[in-house]
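re: ur question from yesterday

yeah so i grabbed the chain u mentioned. its 247 aa long if i counted rite. heres the sequnce exactly as i have it in my notes:
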Amino acid sequence: MTECLARGRTLPEAYHNSLKALEKDGAVIPCTDYNTMQKEVSMTICVDEPLSEPMISRLFIGGPHELEQYRQEMLDGILDFEVERGNWEYTYHMRMEEQFDFILRELKRNPESRRAVIDIRDWRADSRKDSPACLQHIQYFIRDGALHGKVLFRSNDAVKATFMNAFALIMLQKRFADQLGVRMGTYTHRANSFHAYERDFELLRGYVRRIEAGEDITFDYEGEWQELMEDEKPAIAELVRELRDER
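ran it thru and got these C-alpha cells back, copy pasting raw so excuse formatting
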C-alpha cells in the first residue's frame, strides 16, 4: 500500500492535501465486503495548529447542523440511547466516555506520561459484527506545555467522513486541554485505509479540482460557523427529543 503524509498549518489545509494525495496516488482495488471498488492509500494527516483559522472546509457532506450534531454525538453522547434501544451497535462516545476521567487523571499525575490512551476497539464485539468500529484508539501527550492528539482509524472514508471525524476529535482534544490548563498542540490523524468508494470517485475529483483551482473553500469557525452551529442547537435538541419519544 502507498504511504502518504499530508501536512498543513490548519485542518482544512491538511485535509485538502490528503484529498489531493488520495486522488494522485490512490490504487483502485476491489472492496469485496461492499461489492464495489475503492481508491485507497494509507494516510497520515498532520495538523500543526488545529485551532487556527480557517478551521472549516467546504469540502464535506453537510453543513452547520450536521457538524454540530456530530460534535455533540462524539463529545456528549446525545444519541447513545439508540444503542440501548438496539437500533445501533455502538457509538464512539459510549466506547470512550468511561475513559475520559482516566485521561485527565493520568496527565495530571504525570504530564510526561505515555499512557494516556483511549481504546475504542472492542475486539470481542467488533470481531463478530459486520460494522466494527473504524476509530481504534486515541493517545494524548503533553509536551512543551501543549496537549498533542494522535488518532488511529483502521478505515476512513476520505470524502464522506474524515473532515467531520477530525473536527470533532479536535474539539475533544480542546476540551481536555482546557480541563488540564494547557495549550493545544498538534493533531495527527492516521488512517490505515484512507479511501473513496467508486460511487464517490467523481466527488473526489471535483473536490481536488476546486482545491487546485484555488477556490475559496474554507470558513472561519470563530465569528462565522461557531455562531451558525450554535443556532442549530435547538433544532438538534428537538430532534433528539423526537427520537427519544419514538416507540
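noticed a couple things. The radius of gyration is 18 Å. also The first helix runs from residue 11 to 25.
anyway ttyl
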